[in-house]
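Entry 12.
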Amino acid sequence: MKRYIAAIIYTAIAFGATPSFADTSAAAALRSGDMKKLVFHSTPEATSNVPFQLADGAGEKTLDAYKGKHVLINFWATWCAPCRKEMPMLSALQAEFGGDDFEVVTIATGRNTEAGIKKFFEGANIDNLPSYQDPKQALASQMGIFGLPITVIMNPDGKEVARLRGDADWVSDSAKAIITQLIKTE
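Predicted 3D structure (tokens):
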């Protein structure tokens, strides 16, 4: 009997006392469709503090600026067809969930001109996503971004909790349920 009680306590500690694990495991259980490609890490992973460029030459920023909220970071390029396909969905996700607890951040990595990004956003009627750039792929390289698109989900502590390779339907019921679960557990 004592072993049984000890096993229950150990399990409760392992799964319940580690909020980041409990939060992501509940969100992971909501994956279906394209979201099955979203891989949750068993423990949160460090992100990079390499700066990326702000739009219109306004300076630089790092991912540290987003601590305190969940952030969906999408690494993309103007020449990448799957990236272009999912960008309106990311815009819709930002429109629905963006705020104090969640934000979609788009970072064009590699050879993307500021004018090209602006033209694409205007043509796709996207006005709520940032047009950040990582022209030398320094941030992408530090974060192991090889191939596009890749989307990383960062927790409020600034740690990577999940990653999706390829494009996905970010306005699907599954995607919305995952974001909702992540936000409500903080």
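Annotation: The CA atoms of residues 56 and 115 lie 9 Å apart. The radius of gyration is 18 Å.
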